[in-house]
Structure formats: C-alpha cells, structure tokens
Amino acid sequence: MSEHKDNQQNSKDMNDRYVTLVDDQGNEELYQVLFTFDSEDYGKSYVLLYPASAKEDEEVEIQAFSFKPDENGDVAEGDLYPIEDDDEWNMVEEVLNTFINDDGTDY
Q1: pTM of the predicted structure, to 2 decimals
Q2: Minimal CB count within 10 Å: which of 5, 47, 71, 82?
Q3: Which band of pLDDT confidence, cut at 50, 70 and 90, is reported for residue 100?
Q4: For residues 69 and 93, what is the distance between their CA atoms, to the nearest angstrom?
C-alpha cells in the first residue's frame, strides 16, 4: 500500500463507487472503490481504492483511508482520512490480504 495523497476529495458517481483523489500538486485521479469495511477495534469505517484506469491484469497500488459513512453506510461526499497508525495499517493490510485470498483476484 502506498502513502495517502493530501487534500482528498471524492465525487458522487455511479452509486459512490468512484472517488477522485487530489494530490498536493492539484493533480486529480479517479479511483474505483474496491471495498469498504468497518472495524470495531478502531471504531472506524475504511475504504480501499484502486486506479479506475487500471487494466484487469495490471498490478496496482491500493490506496486505503478511513472515512465517515453517509446515512446509507457508503463513501459519499464526506472526507477521507489518512491511516497514520502502524497497528491500524497492519489491520487494514490483513483485511486486504483476506479479501484477495478469498476473491482470488490480484490487485
């Protein structure tokens, strides 16, 4: 996983399945939501994203953030928050690895 990009913004599109990340230079990139999950241990919701422009067999960097869900529990027009705690990162990576192993898909 990579470091987060500063000044994250998201745009509502196709049932909130896409998020636009804006880096500190103002460059925008569209990401697709891989999945979201909640952690009781940290009391947060998390979203994992991958570049929307990625080809099916292309290796990509997964971006992960915590977020405040909307009333439907989705990533909406709200803010994404960087994951800065090492233990929290480890938990997110474990969830991602479980997802990849269960799904059989390489991201």
Answers
A1: 0.75
A2: 71
A3: confident
A4: 20
